[in-house]
Write a structure and sequence with these properties.
The chain is α+β, with helices and mostly antiparallel strands and 300 residues long. It folds into 2 domains: 143 residues, Alpha-Beta Complex (Nucleoside Triphosphate Pyrophosphohydrolase); 141 residues, Nucleoside Triphosphate Pyrophosphohydrolase, CATH 3.90.79. The strands form 4 sheets. Strands 11, 12, 13, 14, 15 and 16 form a 6-stranded mixed sheet that branches. Strands 4-1-6-5 form a 4-stranded mixed sheet, sandwiched between helices. The protein has a 3-stranded antiparallel sheet with strand order 3-2-7. It is built from 6 helices and 16 strands. GO terms for molecular function: metal ion binding; NADH pyrophosphatase activity; RNA NAD-cap (NMN-forming) hydrolase activity. Belongs to the Nudix hydrolase family. NudC subfamily.
C-alpha cells in the first residue's frame, strides 16, 4: 500500500503574518501602532481590494484617530500593525478567498483568512451565549465581553474532517453532492461531533455518507476554512471497492471509484471552474481537497 503526503502547504495555511498575540491586550501599544497601521477593508461578502498577489491596504488613521472598536487586530507585518474592518463599499479590483486565495502571497493569504474568520464571528456574536445580553469587542477584536456579567467569549473554529478514501492501490473514491453539477466530484467531509475524536469522525462520516467501512486512518494536514469559521482537518483512509456503496444520510447523490490515471487526467483538465465538458472535474487549488487528491495521484 502506497503512503503519500501533501506536497505543498494548503493555500490558506501559508500565513507568515506575525499574529502578535501579546499586543492584543496592550491598549497603549495598539494606540501607538495605530498611527502608522495598515487597514484591510472587507465587505460582507468577504471581498477585498487586490493588486496582483497582494491586498490593498489603507492607512488606519483614515478610519479613526485611534483603534476603532469594530476593527480587529490581525498582527504585525514588517513592524507595521495591520487591522481589518467590515465595510459597505469597495472601489477598484476586488477578490475573495475562494477566487483569489491561492494567488495571494503568503502574508496576504494569512491576513485575509484571519480577517474573514474574525469578522464573520463578530457578525454573529453580538449577544452572549450564556444569558443573551449584549456583548462588546475587547482585546483588539479577539474576544467579546458580556455587558451584564463580564463573561468573556472567544472566536470559534468548528473542526471538520475531510478524507481521501483509497483502496491502497490504484483507485480513489470521489463523490458528488445533490446540488453540484454532474461533472463535479470531491472527497468526503463532515463536522466533528461533541465528544468525538477526529479519527472517529472520519469513520462515522464515511459510513453515514457512502456506507463504507474504512481503516488505516491517517492525518495529513489542516487548513483554516472561514466559510464562515471552520478548520478543515485532512486525512486519508483505506476502503474496500467491493463493499456496496449506500447513501445513508441523503447528502451524496453519487460516488464512484476512479483510477489513478482518470484522476491525473482530471487534474490536467483544470478544476470546477473549467468548461471542458469532461466526465470528472475536481476542486480548485484553494481547497485542501485538491492537495489531498493531487498528492495521492502523484504517488505510485
Amino acid at each position: 500500500m502506497a503512503n503519500f503526503e501533501l506536497s505543498e502547504i494548503p493555500s490558506l495555511s501559508r500565513s507568515t503574518l506575525d499574529r502578535a498575540e501579546d499586543l492584543r491586550a496592550d491598549e497603549q501599544a495598539l494606540k501607538q501602532g495605530w498611527t502608522n497601521a495598515a487597514l484591510l477593508r472587507v465587505n460582507r461578502r468577504g471581498q477585498v481590494r487586490i493588486d496582483g498577489s497582494t491586498l490593498v491596504l489603507d492607512a488606519a488613521t483614515d478610519l479613526a484617530a485611534e483603534p476603532a472598536e469594530d476593527a480587529v487586530f490581525l498582527g504585525v507585518d514588517n513592524g507595521r500593525h495591520v487591522w481589518a474592518v467590515r465595510t459597505d463599499d469597495l472601489e477598484g479590483t476586488t477578490g475573495d478567498l475562494r477566487a483569489s486565495g491561492s494567488d495571494l502571497d503568503d502574508t496576504s493569504a494569512g491576513m485575509l483568512t484571519t480577517a474573514v474568520a474574525l469578522l464573520n464571528w463578530h457578525a454573529s456574536a453580538n449577544f452572549s451565549s450564556i444569558d443573551g445580553s449584549p456583548t462588546r469587542p475587547t482585546k483588539a477584536g479577539w474576544s467579546r465581553i458580556s455587558e451584564s456579567t463580564g463573561h468573556e467569549e472567544f472566536p470559534r473554529s468548528d473542526p471538520a474532517v475531510i478524507c481521501l478514501v483509497h483502496d491502497g492501490a490504484e483507485r480513489v473514491l470521489l463523490a458528488r453532492q445533490h446540488t453540484w453539477p454532474e461533472t463535479m466530484f470531491s472527497i468526503l467531509a463532515g463536522f466533528v461531533e461533541a465528544g468525538e475524536s477526529m479519527e472517529a469522525c472520519v469513520a462515522r462520516e464515511i459510513k453515514e455518507e457512502v456506507g463504507l467501512d474504512v481503516h488505516d486512518i491517517r492525518y495529513l494536514g489542516s487548513q483554516p476554512w472561514p466559510f464562515p469559521r471552520s478548520l478543515m482537518i485532512g486525512f486519508a483512509a483505506v476502503g474496500d471497492p467491493e463493499q456496496t456503496i449506500e447513501f445513508t444520510d441523503g447528502e451524496i447523490a453519487e460516488a464512484h471509484w476512479f483510477t489513478r490515471a482518470e484522476v491525473r487526467e482530471a487534474l490536467a483538465q483544470g478544476d470546477w471552474t473549467s468548461k471542458s465538458g469532461v466526465r470528472l472535474l475536481l476542486p480548485g487549488s484553494i481547497s485542501i481537497a485538491r492537495g489531498l487528491v493531487t498528492a495521492w495521484a502523484a504517488s505510485d
